[in-house]
Amino acid sequence: MSRLGPRETLRFNLDPITTVHYVHDVDYVGDAIAGHRLDVITPGTALDPLPVYVYFHGGGWTSGDKSALTKYCASQAAAGMVVVNANYRMATSFRMRHMLQDVDAVLAWVRDHVSEYGGDPLRVVLGGDSAGGQLSALYSAAVTHPDLAAHYGIEPALQSSSLRGLVQHCSAVDLSVMFERGFILGLGFIRMLVPLQPRRTSHEPPVSRRQSLAALRRAARWLSPIEWVGAGHPPVFVTTSERDYFYRASLNYVDRLRSVGGQVETLVYDRSRRNTEHTWQQDARFPESQEVYSRLAEFVHRVTIPAVAVSLEH
């Protein structure tokens, strides 16, 4: 039930991985809409429960579909984890509140059902690219910030002790860059994510452009994961490149994490690597993508080591 054209779906899924098992289009809410479907990809029989990697696609909050990420997710499943590849409702029909509630519904499904597929719901890593990265990062912050969770009307299904890590590919983690003149994405993207504003009555004075921008900046704070970095944040793996238009947003996010003592790893390519345009990680043909996959698997397995194993090591 793809929301992409066949060419785009095929482009990222050439030479499918056949060593893993696919379960497509699980309805994680029960309302039969495409925005509430997820895929589960597993590496096969395992003696012990495996870590779980939950992924949210990008697309500027307005487009995209999990189907384009099938091979990317299968690559991670082949590395020894259960992967959940999820859709969510998108703008302009829906707002950030609805998207975060969908992320929470995916995690509630993981909590209740992923063990049926061999996954350990107590060892979860979230991930995403571009807008999907923003969603996974903002939800990660909501897990440890009750005021942020309350703002979006959620009581996180994922507990902080179960959230072991966060993966960010070319993500929109610092929305302040969108206020800069000439940025590739206009402020209309922010306006469509915040709650609808009531119409101004004829008796109210007009709002100046400066006042409007100031109000939008205040609203953007609730959308921007960098504003919510703090104690208790899970370890993060960030991949970006100088060819990514969210390059500086990613670096700002890394700096903020390090400033509060957060654990953060990076894989950053310079402009000479032509294969590293925005969200290149989706395309498995690139050697740079394969390096991402290798580093990602190492990260997931390291941050999800069971507590028993850790105690034995010490």
What topology emerges from the helices and strands here?
Blueprint: H1 6-12, E1 21-27, E2 37-42, E3 50-56, H2 70-78, E4 82-86, H3 96-113, E5 119-129, H4 131-144, H5 146-151, E6 163-169, H6 188-191, H7 209-221, E7 236-241, H8 247-259, E8 264-269, H9 287-303, H10 307-313
Parallel strand pairs: 3-4, 3-5, 5-6, 6-7, 7-8
Antiparallel strand pairs: 1-2, 2-4
Helix pairs in contact: 3-4
Which descriptors would you attach to this protein?
single chain, 314 residues, alpha/beta, Rossmann fold, eight-stranded mixed beta sheet, 8 strands
Structure described in brief:
The protein has helices spanning 6-12, 70-78, 96-113, 131-144, 146-151, 188-191, 209-221, 247-259, 287-303, 307-313; strands at 21-27, 37-42, 50-56, 82-86, 119-129, 163-169, 236-241, 264-269.
Provide the helix percentage: 25-40%
The average pLDDT value, as a whole number, equals 91
CATH superfamily: Alpha/Beta hydrolase fold, catalytic domain
CATH topology: Rossmann fold
Low-confidence stretches: none
| CATH architectural name | 3-Layer(aba) Sandwich
Estimated share of beta-strand residues = 15-25%
> Main β-sheet: number of strands, strand sense, barrel status?
8 strands, mixed
Assigned CATH class: Alpha Beta
Oligomer: single chain
Summarize the structure in words.
This protein has 314 residues and is α/β, with parallel strands linked by helices. It has a single domain, classed as Alpha/Beta hydrolase fold, catalytic domain (Rossmann fold, 3-Layer(aba) Sandwich), CATH 3.40.50.1820. Helix content is 34%, strand content 18%. It contains ten helices and eight strands. Strands 1-2-4-3-5-6-7-8 form an eight-stranded mixed β-sheet, sandwiched between helices. Helix 8 links the parallel strand 7 and strand 8. The longest helix has 18 residues. The protein is globular. The N and C termini lie far apart (48 Å). The mean pLDDT is 91.
